[in-house]
Fold this protein.
Amino acid sequence: MANLTKDHSLDHLASYPSSVQRVARALSSRNLNSLRVLLRNGPSAVLSFVSHSYHLYSGFGLPHGWQRLPWRNDLKIPSRKIDELFPGMDCTRSPELLFPFPRHLGVLPQELIVLTKVVDHLKAKRVVEFGTAEGRTALNIALHLPPGGEIITLDFPPVPGQNEIGFFYWGQPAKSRIKQIFVSVDAWDYRPPHRASAELVFCDACDRMPGLAAEA
Ligand SMILES: C[S@@+](CC[C@H](N)C(=O)[O-])C[C@H]1O[C@@H](n2cnc3c(N)ncnc32)[C@H](O)[C@@H]1O
């Protein structure tokens, strides 16, 4: 992880765009194509078109291919081939996954494959996940833990009627390996026995500071 106090290349993570920036980006997301979509497909289609264009120009939540575009200047973590990172990991066949298909902006099936492969490869006894959401990743990691293994997964306390944190694992036998903690990542007490106790930590809660720093 970069030195967050000295490395100004990560400054853009420290704050959300101002209202002026957001308006400017929204305006720059419109183009002649949006007019065509409006005329051909109507207002809800054009709203979707402009919001996806906005995502494109703001650089978050982009489809797979967009994550490698050469003009992106906010991708600071170098990418490596999987066998450079985990030499000897068997990638010849995919693992068994439950509920593999993602929700919008959710973890992609190939990301679930990599995560569970790594759990298998490291024979990880303890995994920490920041950001449970519906619990798809927590469940799939739990399925691949060795006997006695556990995954600790953190999220905010659920809001009744609004979200159901972890519902994918609720009725599953693997639930016994999942320890759900309802707390903000920056408030979690990660002193022993938790500190430095996990073979794998999946940071998937926060996109920006200060939560991002707390996860790191
Ligand atoms: C991208 S989703 C996690 C998806 C999940 N890891 C999966 O693979 O299905 C992000 C989750 O992080 C949670 N979150 C965001 N900020 C958080 C914080 N500061 N502390 C704890 N949880 C947070 C959100 O409530 C949301 O459920």
Strands lie at 126-130, 150-155, 178-182, 200-203.
